[in-house]
Design a protein that fits this description.
Helix content is 32%, strand content 19%. By secondary structure, the protein is of the alpha/beta class. The strands form six sheets. An eight-stranded mixed β-sheet has the order 1-12-7-2-3-4-13-21, with helices on both faces. The protein has a five-stranded mixed β-sheet with strand order 17-16-20-18-19, covered by helices on one side. Strands 11-8-22 form a three-stranded mixed β-sheet. Helix 1 packs across helix 10. The protein starts with 11 loop residues before the first helix and ends with a strand. The model is unreliable at 1-12, 353-372 and 470-511 (pLDDT under 50).
Length: 521
């Protein structure tokens, strides 16, 4: 089983916890803190300015609790994810939650778990690897050091976890260009399941019928209510054994997690869960058992910042990859352009580090002078499902920030790049990438954005399709699903998912917004 059944832990556990505290009071807060696992792994590194807060959420694929103990068999059965022998200590879910101090829209950055990066300190002798592996490598290295020391098993477990946390935090911070990590939260697979048990049923929405025996997913098109076990399958699915044409990949799972957070937060606020003492206590008990946070995180203070997240005041962004590749051992990895990734991060949430030197990543990532200068919004003016997603992802692979995607029911024949004040140069560069299409001024286009309206005559240029990991036909290609151990899990491909409102049926990895129940792949 191994990584084929690797867990997916939703980052919303932290937001949900602090939201619960806003209505639960000081006494309950003290009771929670007394039983919550805390960590000193962050150290005294640089903090965010202007009252901003960056929180790294790490979801472990371990099938154990926070003390390293096995779970009850009925939970393993419900999880459909193996038992204590499966999983490991990889950080299979990595999200950086940026909450601005001025109360403006928060941003959740999803970091694809198979991104091939440098690992600071070379834990266990490995200096490069998938970004998710930093935790497990440092955990294993510490375990080897402690093997002959004896003592309490749970104390050794916590020392090993501390080493893993520090390594993962350092790796993420370096990869993102020195962005401050003010706080962190670590949650396990069972934490997500138990949260879902407390608040079930949860309403989700799918664009297609889909079925997968590996994760246990079996969903129909449209909105539906799911229980806790189905929720685990919803956020873990990365293949479809009945509908292979859907081309599921790891990044589709990233978007599923984002969609679940959005749906859950929306429902909790609408349904009054935050005023239900029984449900609140259940959520807080889960936090005590299967969650760890840094010792400096004042949950009551942060709750004031996080309280508006359930109102949809959050955007979800999946950081770009260049292509799928292999490492020196032949394992599937995501090839990334570090300069491109760090540029996207600086644009979205700022940072402390200067712009990095030119990347050694493949030139297909695209880092010319025009890259990163505009946010590109894409409108699908055709009947081709998912075309806006495909174009958006391809342009993101060329260095542009992906904006919104939508579908115009009034089909148009021409493809046009519209620009507002000062956007002529960026529009011309985008138009060139799209095959030399027309540009036009439109005063309604926001500064720093261009709007691409795709017409029925559009054909994706082969060079642009290759940069986006897809084909000139407009549909991204995906590698075959593959199993493997801790470092050999399947590669990722661009997800296609919808967003709330009037979405394209297949929105780009960077385009999901909170505020409702989005329909996704």
């Amino acid at each position: 089983m191994g990584a084929r059944r690797s867990g997916a832990v939703v980052a919303g556990v932290l937001s949900l916890l602090v939201l619960c505290l806003t209505g639960y009071g000081w006494t309950q807060y003290n009771n929670l803190v007394a039983g919550l696992h805390t960590s000193d792994a962050l150290g005294g590194d640089t903090k965010s300015a202007n009252g901003d807060t960056n929180i790294l959420i790490m979801g472990l694929d371990s099938r154990l609790d926070e003390n390293g103990n096995a779970l009850p068999q009925d939970i393993y059965d419900a999880l459909h994810a193996g038992d204590q022998q499966d999983g490991g200590n990889n950080a299979n879910v990595l999200m950086l939650l940026h909450v601005p101090g001025d109360g403006s829209k928060a941003t959740s950055l999803s970091i694809p778990r198979d991104d091939y990066v440098d690992i600071p300190g070379c834990p266990d002798g490995q200096c490069k690897g998938k970004i998710k592996q930093a935790y497990g490598l440092a955990f294993d290295q510490k375990a080897k050091q402690l093997v002959n020391e004896g003592g309490d098993k749970s104390q050794r477990e916590q020392q090993e976890r501390e080493a893993g946390r520090k390594a993962e935090i350092d790796t993420v911070r370096q990869f993102l260009g020195g962005v401050p990590v003010d706080h962190f939260a670590e949650v396990t697979l069972v934490a997500f399941f138990q949260i879902a048990q407390v608040v079930q049923p949860v309403t989700v929405c799918l664009n297609e019928d889909t079925q997968d025996s590996y994760s246990g997913a079996d969903f129909h098109q449209g909105r539906q209510q799911i229980n806790a076990a189905q929720a685990v399958a919803f956020v873990r699915q990365r293949r479809d054994v009945v509908h292979p044409q859907l081309n599921f990949t790891d990044l589709d799972r990233e978007v599923r997690q984002q969609a679940f957070i959005s749906s859950l937060a929306y429902q909790l606020k609408q349904g009054g869960v935050f005023t239900n003492p029984s449900q609140l206590q259940g959520i807080l008990n889960v936090a005590k058992q299967n969650m760890a946070v840094d010792a400096g995180l004042d949950l009551m203070s942060f709750a004031g910042q996080a309280a508006n997240l359930t109102g949809g005041n959050i955007s979800f962004v999946t950081l770009p990859i260049v292509k799928f590749g292999k490492n020196t051992s032949g394992e599937d990895v995501n090839i990334v352009d570090v300069a491109q990734v760090q540029g996207v991060v600086r644009q979205l949430i700022g940072g402390t580090a200067p712009a990095p030197p030119s990347s050694s990543a493949p030139s297909s990532a695209g880092s010319g002078a025009q890259a990163g200068q505009a946010t590109v919004d894409v409108v699908n003016g055709t009947s081709r499902t998912g075309l806006a997603s495909t174009v958006s992802h391809a342009l993101a692979a060329k260095g542009y920030a992906a904006g919104t995607t939508s579908t115009d029911p009034r089909h148009v024949s021409r493809t046009v790049v519209y620009y507002g004040s000062g956007g002529s140069t960026s529009a011309s560069a985008v138009a060139k990438l799209l095959g030399g299409v027309t540009t036009e001024h439109d005063s309604t286009v926001p500064s720093g954005h261009v709007r691409v309206v795709i017409g029925t005559a559009f054909t994706m240029p082969s060079a642009l399709a290759a940069a986006g990991g897809g084909t000139s036909g407009g549909q991204p290609s995906a590698p075959p699903a593959s199993g493997g151990g801790a470092s050999g899990s399947q590669p990722s491909a661009p997800p296609t998912s919808g967003a709330a409102g009037a979405p394209d049926s297949s929105a780009p990895p960077n385009g999901l917004s909170g505020g409702g129940i989005p329909c996704v792949k």
